[in-house]
Amino acid sequence: MRAVTAIVETRPGGQRSPKDVFLKYLALTKPRIIEQLLVATIPSMLLAQRGVPALWLVVATVAFGALAAGSAGAFNCVVDADIDAVMKRTAKRPIVNDTVSKRSALIFAIVLGALAVGGMWLTTNLLSAVLTLAAIAFYVLVYTMWLKRRTSQNVVWGGICGCMPVLIGWSAVTGTVGWQAFVMFGVIFFWTPPHSWALGMKYREDYTNAGVPMLPSVASPRQVTLRIVLYSWAMALCALVLIPGTSWLYAACAVIAGAWFLAAVHRLHSQVRRGAEYKPMGVFHLSNTYLCLVFVMLAVDAVVGWPVLGWPF
To answer: Distances in Å between the alpha carbon of 25 and those of 141, 147, 249?
Structure first.
């Protein structure tokens, strides 16, 4: 990813190559967020189908979902350019370095958003398109322009945007949104704060300097880790709600992965309480592993189609 965000040398005469331009605009889309989209969308579609949907439908949903995430990311880069300029981890973003102008980035974001919503409507259905538009609008208008700079609960409610892919994926297959999709929504909703706050503990000074009230920048480490523990329990328990409609394969994964992650967050909280050295990035990286394991196993379970443990879907 460093290759995407790094400043690339220009050609003689100051002209950038097409590859350079592509990398700059790609960086605006925040590709790592798009990776998370895949983890959420595809398992939701497989679970909705209880098997493998038509390949064209999967490709279309993921592709236009990726454009939607890219649009939201680009809008975020435009609105938060002043914040990005004073934070070390975002100081190399294209707008900050004047390699892409705000105007160009804004046009790029609008075009991506229009393609995402229109393409989703044409290839799937109206509900999926509406959910796609809602996800972009919520991320830009509610999270980026309102919550992020005003409350320490910014990522709690702003995280709703990251939950939308499971609803979009499910609706693309069925035309509706089933209760299982809302449970998956809940898993991601409760996952987001521990994931974001662990990262925030690492970059606490960055957020403080930028004037962003991320919880770790306005609360003590002990308060932050306690909330991480509480949200992690909610996340792990929410994942168990899907067990009655799955096989032992998903059940075992949800229980073991949940216990593994809970042990890690309790250890972090204990270290903070004792005044010992602690490394929040361990929890941050493990949160990615947890979400990937649970959702991938959910997808495998849906495709394999073993007998369910409780009521059928």
So the answer is: 21, 26, 41
> What superfamily in CATH does domain 21-174 come from?
UbiA prenyltransferase (1.10.357.140)
In the chain, CATH 1.20.120.1780 sits at 178-313
- Does pLDDT of 59 surpass 90? yes
CATH class label, 178-313: mainly alpha
Residue 17 has pLDDT above 90, yes or no: no
Task: Report residue 141's pLDDT band, with 50, 70 and 90 as the boundaries.
Answer: very high
How far is residue 220's CA from residue 244's CA, in Å, rounded to a whole number?
A: 39
- pTM score, whole prediction: 0.89
Give the number of C-alpha atoms closer than 13 A to the C-alpha of residue 298, restricted to the C-beta side.
33
Amino acid at 226: L
- The dihedral over CA atoms of 102, 134, 41, 187, expressed in degrees to the nearest 10, equals 110
